[in-house]
Amino acid sequence: MQQTTETTAATYRERIGKLQAAMKEFGYQAVVLEPGPAMVYLTGVRWGKSERTFAVVLPAQGEPVWVLPGFEEARARELIHVGDDIRVWQEDDSPYERIVQGIKDRAAGAPAGPPRVGIDEAARFFVFDGIRKLAPKLDYTSAATILKQGGVDSTAPAGRGRGGAGRNE
What we know:
Blueprint: H1 9-26, E1 28-33, H2 37-43, E2 55-59, E3 65-69, H3 73-79, E4 85-89, H4 95-105, E5 116-119, H5 125-134, E6 139-142, H6 144-149
Parallel strand pairs: 1-5, 3-4, 5-6
Antiparallel strand pairs: 1-2, 2-3
């Protein structure tokens, strides 16, 4: 009997669901991820960082919002297992506008109080700064604690969550 190490889309949905439950409990509206261990563990998408922003907004409720360069859309669609809301940006567009709009579009059902957005530790400062400048009234915080509550160990190598299962490439 052949064993498989492939993680299913259903598993990624379960992982995101666990994170969303923690987000609701702790008052987060969304978490923004750039490529790194949390993105791989939660979505299965392994993407290299470049000067062009590639990110996913995981809302407290609803499907992920993917933000990526237009010329990478075909390749990204092959890798994305969860969520079909893909917002591309072109060279003369702002990826941060797409991220902020994704946060706003998924605000329904978010916890009461000031909108709290977790920024993954893998996110670069210029990405956070671009988002913050367009939406200065959001309450930004590190996503490390909420990701840990959702089962993500951001200190583990990419692809590993709690327990170092590591088979989820």
